[in-house]
Amino acid sequence: MPTPADPAGAISAIGDPARRARAAKAAAEDASRLYGELYRKAIKALVEAHGGNRSKAARELGISSQRVGQILGEDDASPSPAGAAYGEPALYFGDEDAADAALRDWALANQELIDRRDPLVRGARMAGLSPRQIRELTDLPLETIERLVAGDIAVAVEVELEVWEAAVEHFADLADAAATREAAYAYRSTGRALAGAIGMVVDGSGRAPALDPAMRGPQWEALSPQAKAELAMTLPVGGDVPETSGEHTLLSWDAWAALYCARLERGTDADTGPMAEAMRHCAAILRHIRIHAALPQEKG
């Protein structure tokens, strides 16, 4: 389709501002129609290249199959004359503050999904899935997948429960030895969060409570496993399992640790205060455990 050699120059030369504004508006609408038609034809060609499969074309473009249909004019994107609406109605908000708060909550939840996504994609690639297989399952563009798996990637290993339990005790020790209240809080809160993730009972200090005397000694050792379980259920527990969100209880321990590391480091940014340093230290410990299945050898 031919276009003027210099449409912007011709419009700029119009002396009357009102005429210039109308001419610019008309030119913008013409350009929108022109490039919109080129866009539609390109998408149509892509769908045809995929044998008419709109879903595959949509995944390659990073948009939904429904959106492809709307661009090609095959899906009605507007309500019918009878007033029927497609999709869920807009949410009700009493005022702008309520809408703002809801969007902020969504942004936090979306960031957490991204924090979970990146190590998940890297792990899937290291496990042998091809970038195209990952794209089919996640709808992520190939460019994003390749970026996430570029360079040297450390791969987590299976970590025994005993190691995670030892880490909970280690964070409690670090909290007791911390030089500032802020650092102690960072270590203790990380230990309690980990205890909640693995279902470990801890006391107020963040450690496993001491065993009841009835659960020690020759008489205890002589009991059968069933008898031990029945007796343990009748004894008082000197602690509890810290609460964790319902969604996080569905994660593997490794996935939880990866997500928690990302949240710790995102919360520190460029801060150099004692709490930020302790949070980065917590993330480094968790990451070391994920890679080596053992606590790091702390200096000092």
From TrEMBL:
<dbReference type="Pfam" id="PF02954">
    <property type="entry name" value="HTH_8"/>
</dbReference>
<dbReference type="InterPro" id="IPR002197">
    <property type="entry name" value="HTH_Fis"/>
</dbReference>
<protein>
    <submittedName>
        <fullName>Bacterial regulatory protein, Fis family</fullName>
    </submittedName>
</protein>
<feature type="domain" description="DNA binding HTH">
    <location>
        <begin position="40"/>
        <end position="64"/>
    </location>
</feature>
<dbReference type="GO" id="GO:0043565">
    <property type="term" value="F:sequence-specific DNA binding"/>
</dbReference>
